[in-house]
Structure formats: C-alpha cells, structure tokens
Design a protein that fits this description.
Layout (H helix, E strand, L loop, with lengths): L13 H18 L8 H12 L14 H10 L6 H14 L3 E6 L4 E6 L1 H8 L11 H4 L3 H8 L3 E4 L12 E8 L6 E9 L6 H21 L9 E4 L7 E4 L2 E4 L2 H12 L6 H8 L7 H15 L4 E2 L4 E2 L3 E3 H10 L3 H6 L12 H21 L2 H8 L8 H10 L3 H15 L11
Helix pairs in contact: 4-8, 12-14, 15-16, 16-17
Length: 425
C-alpha cells in the first residue's frame, strides 16, 4: 500500500478485506495480537483503545444535550466554518447517503448532518451531537483517531474497534488554529464502504485545509503594540506570536521564554541556570550562548540582561489558564488547556510550573464535580489514567463504561508493582 492512511489499496476486494479484518479483530480481542492485514495506524489505535479500557461491545456516551450543547457549539471556533463545511461536504453527504460530522479536540461530536435515513441509523449507535467519540471512549474511529494522531485518516469496516460501528466507513481530517497551531477538532465524512477510497480521504483533507484558510482570514494576527503571545500548552516546542507572525522556537528557547514570562522582574544568570538545567555541571558559557541565539530570534532590544528579562509584554496561554482558575472560571480554564505545559521538558522550574497548573486544574475539576468537565479530562491523553478524576466522574455520572474503567485502573493500582499515576497532567 502506498499510503498507510488510506484503508484500501487499488484493486483490493472490499468484501474479502472485511472478512479478513473481522478475523483479525477477533484475534486481537481474544489474544491481544494484531495479525495481517491490519494497517499499522489501526493496530496502534486498537492497542490504545484496549489500554483505555474500551470494550468491543461498548457504545458512545452522550455528554451534552439541549441548551448545554447549543451554548458549547456557539462558542466553539469551528462554528465559524460550519457554513464552509456544509457548502463543501453537505451536498456530497446528503446525495451519497453519508453524514458530515464535526468534533472538537476531545473527540466530542458537535454537528452531525446528512441524509435523513442515515442519521437515524447512526443515532442507534449514538453517533449524534454531544456524544463522545474519542478513541479512549469508543475506540478506533476516524474522527477520534484523527484528533488522537493529528493526521487525516480513513477507518474501514471492521477496522473500527467497537463492533456496532463496524458496518460503517469514515474519513476524517484534523483542523488546527492557523495562528497558534492548536488542534480545534476534526471534520469527518461517515457512511458505507464506498467511502473506502483515496478520493474521500483527499477530499476531507482538502476541506480541513480550506477551513484553516478561512479561519486565518477571520482571526488575523494581533498588532505588535498589543504585546506578544506564547503558546506552550500541549506542545513540546512553543510558538511565539509577535508582530503578526508566528515563530516556532527550539525546546530550550521555549523553556527560557516560559520562565521569563513567569518572572517579568527577571532572573539572574545563576537563577536561570538552576531553573533550566538538571545537570549542575553546565557552565555559564552554555547558558549565555543559548541566550545569544534567542536574542537573534527575538530581535534587538527584546531580551535584556542583569537580570535577564523581557522588555515587552508576553502573555502565555498557561498564564491565561491560571488566571481563569484563580477567578473560578473552571470551564473556560479547561477549554483553554490543550495539554500539559511543554510536556517533554525536564527543566526543573518548567516541571514545577507544569505540575502546578495540572494539579490546580485537577483539584478544581474534582471539587466542582461537573461530569462534562471531568469527562473532558479523563478522555484526554494526559488524563486517561488519572484515578482520582475517574473516581469523581464515576460518582458524578455512574455509567457502566465509567465504572468499568475505574475498576480496571484501581485493579492495576492494587496489583504488585502497580503504578502510582502519571508524573503530571
């Protein structure tokens, strides 16, 4: 196969592939091994689904309905491009007895539209607005897997992890904020096996790119006079937006700017070295070289010394989340949290900031006991093994799938050598 993201190579017999996939799925659910002809992207997704405790006979939970769903959709950035999605995909979906679906970055369906009879069939498996279709909730599926891997992907028939979804085929592509690169969600086309064609994947990929282009026109970069912005959440390398342009920083420069944004009064060379380096033998020359390179990136007059400090305002997305938390706005704080702060960083001070922010969010979620917000956390990659939040969710919304996942995590904890939870969220 030339493209591993396409479900069927040219000339393949769909009926024979369906039979082979059913056999492979049964082998995996019984023995935990993935035989051929399962694609690598699907095999990896099956393993993630199993680790998340998804049952092959499970179903999606509907988490938002009525007014709550309407409010959430109206405030979501992808609402701005729904007319574009309908124009480009709506007629194709309706004429082909398919569905157009759009999900958020957590895999929750926001819109599901298309042919009336297909909508009724999809409703029987809770493929409806407000339902959670992330991988960690219902296993391998195109919108959930697209947001999990950040790539356009096709899922064909028995490649779906949950059996009741296996009569369907879908193709989805992620949509990102063109200014910050933050994942916003995915656009999906769902229907019969006729969608298992390279053209459907290429089509949905093109629609996602068109949506990003329209969002770029709707949200141009802010003028430099209003300060600069630093996106550090859910990414290993920060994006600095300044003067209407975005700059992707190196990992070390990302760490330095996080620390200087946190301390506008500045840091001495010794303080910055202790904050950055685990190895105490790193020399001051190494730090000065990094700072010289950062000055070249930032331009003249932005990074001062003695102490090291920024001369222009710099707002980080982490600071925005912390400010919302301090104000008690937990819903908007979580909405602005696409993932841990520089998750790959081992700089001591960055690790402390990452833990402080994640622990603050977790504590607010548990105290608030809002089942939708708790579900957002545990169905995200950084929260899928968070026992404390799973306990709060199982208490607030005791569905069979929530209780089963909690029981599996607690059993793993009780086992000899059981893990004690993730380092940070």
């Amino acid at each position: 196969m030339t493209d591993p993201w396409v479900a069927l190579e040219p000339g393949a017999d769909p009926a024979e592939r369906v039979r082979a996939l059913h056999r492979a799925h049964e082998t995996f659910t019984e023995a935990g091994t993935v035989p051929r002809p399962v694609r690598g992207v699907v095999a990896d997704s099956w393993r993630r689904s199993a680790r998340a405790g998804v049952h092959p006979d499970g179903s999606a939970d509907v988490e938002l309905t009525d007014g709550d769903l309407g409010t959430y959709r109206a405030e979501h950035p992808l609402a701005h491009v729904m007319p574009l999605f309908r124009e480009l995909l709506g007629t194709f979906a309706s004429d082909g007895r398919h569905l157009l679906a759009v999900c958020d970055a957590r895999g929750r369906l926001l819109w599901v539209e298309g042919h009336a009879s297909t909508l009724r069939q999809a409703g029987r498996m809770n493929f409806v607005p407000g339902a959670r279709w992330s991988e960690s909730a219902v296993g391998t599926n195109a919108p959930g897997t697209a947001v999990a891997v950040g790539r356009p992907v096709q899922v064909f028939a028995a490649e779906h992890f949950v059996r009741r979804v296996q009569p369907w085929t879908c193709a989805a592509a992620p949509v990102h904020d063109p200014r910050t690169g933050r994942l916003l969600g995915a656009v999906d086309i769902t229907g019969g096996n006729g969608l298992a064609h390279p053209h459907s994947l290429g089509f949905v990929r093109a629609v996602a790119r068109a949506a990003e282009s329209q969002l770029a026109l709707l949200t141009p970069g802010r003028p430099a006079a209003r300060g600069s912005e630093l996106a550090v959440l859910g990414r290993d390398r920060a994006v600095l937006t300044t003067g209407g342009r975005g700059i992707r920083l190196s990992r070390r420069h990302s760490e330095i700017l996080v620390l200087l944004a946190e301390r506008p009064d500045g840091l001495t060379g010794d303080e910055l070295a202790c904050a950055l380096y685990e190895d105490e033998s790193v020399t001051p020359v190494t730090l000065r070289a990094e700072l010289a390179r950062l000055r070249q990136v930032l331009g003249p007059g932005v990074l001062a010394s003695r102490p090291y400090r920024l001369t222009l305002p710099l707002e980080s997305d982490a600071a925005v989340v912390e400010r919302r938390l301090a104000a008690g706005a937990v819903t908007t704080a979580l909405a602005g949290y696409p993932g841990p702060l520089l998750p790959a960083s081992r700089a001591p001070a960055v690790v402390r900031l990452r833990r402080r922010l994640a622990d603050g969010l977790r504590a607010a979620l548990v105290a608030g006991a809002d089942p939708d917000l708790l579900a957002d956390w545990v169905h995200a990659p950084w929260g899928e093994d968070d026992v404390e939040v799973w306990r709060a969710l199982a208490a607030a919304r005791p569905t069979p799938s929530h209780r089963a996942r909690l029981a599996a995590l607690e059993a793993e904890l009780a086992a000899p050598g059981g893990w004690a939870g993730r380092e940070d969220g």
